[in-house]
Structure to design on (227 residues):
């Protein structure tokens, strides 16, 4: 069975600084997707970034980028130039034959 | 349009009531999902519909009854719920069912359900 581990329950960062959220997963599948979802206090879950396992190049979406280490089964999210609007719960998710979420990391951006 | 809508936003119901939650998307997605989410926890998958047919039921109690009348609409009928069923109920959709049914899901804002 697939598992997803987010080892940081809560993090905080100063506005304009960079923060990295960690995620590790366990699977025997070779073809899968990984996602980071953001859920702000208003509760709408938003897809932040996706990574396809067969692609070696790390995905980037504006200020959001990932460090995908397939052999290590690691998928961290880097947020550059943090903004107050980045305050949210962040979920790492693995999509193989089913979608498995990590426990989440609460990120607080401070002014 | 990458929008999934859900109604109502909030719902309070007694344990003997019958109510329904509604979810709609017009993105042409053929997989739709119901999740239950408790505060500060990840969503828990309840049901998956692929091409309007129920493909996954994650051992959900029968007091929750899903329905998919067409490719754009998903309902969740509620009956004789318990207080522990109080939660945020999220609907999601994705483009490609089958082996990659869980690829890139788009979520609605959710219905906050309180069972009294």
């Amino acid at each position: 069975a697939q598992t997803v581990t987010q080892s940081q329950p809560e993090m905080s960062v100063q506005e304009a600084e960079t923060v990295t959220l960690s995620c590790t997963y366990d699977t025997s599948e070779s073809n899968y997707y990984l996602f980071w979802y953001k859920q702000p206090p208003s509760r709408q879950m938003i897809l932040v970034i996706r990574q396809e396992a067969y692609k070696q190049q790390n995905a980037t979406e504006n200020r959001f980028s990932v460090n995908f280490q397939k052999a290590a089964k690691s998928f961290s999210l880097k947020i550059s130039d943090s903004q107050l609007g980045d305050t949210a719960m962040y979920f790492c998710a693995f999509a193989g034959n089913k979608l498995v979420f990590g426990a989440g990391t609460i990120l607080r951006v401070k002014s | 349009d990458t929008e999934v809508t859900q109604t109502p936003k909030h719902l309070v119901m007694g344990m003997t009531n019958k109510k329904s939650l509604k979810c709609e998307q017009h993105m042409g997605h053929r997989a739709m999902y119901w999740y239950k989410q408790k505060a500060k926890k990840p969503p828990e998958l309840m049901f998956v519909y692929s091409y309007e047919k129920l493909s996954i039921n994650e051992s959900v109690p029968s007091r929750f009854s899903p329905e998919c009348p067409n490719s754009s609409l998903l309902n969740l009928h509620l009956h004789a719920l318990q207080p522990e069923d109080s939660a945020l109920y999220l609907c999601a959709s994705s483009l490609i069912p089958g082996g990659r049914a869980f690829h890139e899901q788009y979520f609605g804002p959710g219905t906050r359900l309180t069972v009294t």
The first strand of chain A starts at residue 3 and ends at 5. Chain A has a mean pLDDT of 93. Chain A touches chain B through 22 residues (CB under 8 Å).
